Amino acid sequence: MMTAAQLAAVESPDEQQAFDALIAAEQRIEPRDWMPDAYRRTLIRQISQHAHSEIIGMQPEGNWITRAPSLKRKAILMAKVQDEAGHGLYLYSAAQTLGITRDEMTQQLIDGKAKYSSIFNYPTPTWADMGAIGWLVDGAAICNQVPLCRASYGPYGRAMVRICKEESFHQRQGFEILLTLMQGTEAQRDMAQDAVNRWYWPSLMMFGPPDDESPNSAQSMAWKIKRFSNDELRQRFVGMLVPQAEILGITLPDPELHWDEDHWHTSEIDWTEFHEVLSGRGPMNGTRLQNRRAAHEEGAWVREAAVAYAAKQAKKAEAAA
Ligand code: FAQ
Fold it and tell me: Which Gene Ontology BP terms does the record give (predicted)?
């Protein structure tokens, strides 16, 4: 059986050749360009999942805005959560250039049909979780997303540039929260270590399944959407964490972790947990979706008002013309 890309090549050989040449020459594919259907579908899948992750990802930290330990911490956390909303919006806009509407994507999310990152299905019971999310979750996001700035699809790559700049601030603020706690009382140090113990393994799962179980990687790398494999990026992340953990005085919760000639040797990741979370059975999946649905329903009047306002403005403009 022919793959979707081969089928497209038979249907439109000239366009396929032009597309292949652009990819080979490290040029960007833009919305106006012809592209194989499978390339378009892959991008819609990845970009919309990424956008949903940013939007759902506001919840674990949003949970702490009213309880941040000082006015300064509250202002920083509010700005960070607001940045994540912005990332979601750029990414929805990038996906829209591929022919899907924002309404369709939102509907897929609230119907529970769309994936979003597994990491946002874990609870945030203590203030130290804000440090662990910034350090580990934003840290993993940077490792994964810096190469996406060179993704072959123009609107995605360009959106990633600003997103990555903001993510690096986020990572530093998380590191600084943990550093402050580690320089505090014994109870504060324990709280920081406990948060890292809980977030470390899920943050490694953010990079996706191992390479030999990643059905999308080979094609996405051939299309230069992904530049490195899931395992390569996971390795890079562990390498980044080790010296930073030392500075913090925090122990990464993996007794087997060590450098083994040319790679980081880690204990086996619990992929059963990963698949459970992806199937909707993580600790917070239900709550996250329920909150997103409620926000959508409660925001209906805003959307209606915006449509009514736009219609009124259009009528006015028509009357003036
Ligand atoms: N969670 O064949 P692969 C952030 C799915 S943003 C859930 O390897 P692919 C910022 C995958 O979709 C975090 N699902 O797939 C922030 C596929 O499902 P499908 C989000 C996962 O696409 C910080 C199936 O498994 N970042 O953190 C996960 O080649 C703090 C097979 O996997 C992005 O989305 C997972 N962890 O590689 C916000 C980055 N892993 O669709 C707030 C862009 C895999 O076939 C607070 N995305 N799956 O049914 C990517 O780089 C890629 O899509 C991967 C997965 C690497 C995530």
Answer: phenylacetate catabolic process
**Ligand 1 pocket residue status of 293, Cβ below 6 Å:** no
Question: Does residue 83 line the site of ligand 1, with CB under 6 A?
Answer: no
139 lines ligand 1 (CB under 6 A): no
Name the residue among 203, 177, 192, 185 with its Cα closest to residue 251: 192
Q: Which residue, judged by its Cα, is nearest atom 49 of ligand 1?
A: 115
Q: Does 2 fall in a domain?
A: no
Domain count, the chain: 1
pLDDT value at position 177?
98
Q: What is the pLDDT of residue 7?
A: 56
Q: Which is the closest atom of ligand 1 to the Cα of 226?
A: 51
Kindly state the DSSP code that residue 281 receives in the 8-state scheme. I
The answer to pTM > 0.70 is yes
Give the span between the Cα atoms of 274 and 157, in whole angstroms.
Answer: 27
- Give the CATH number, domain containing residue 220: 1.20.1260.10
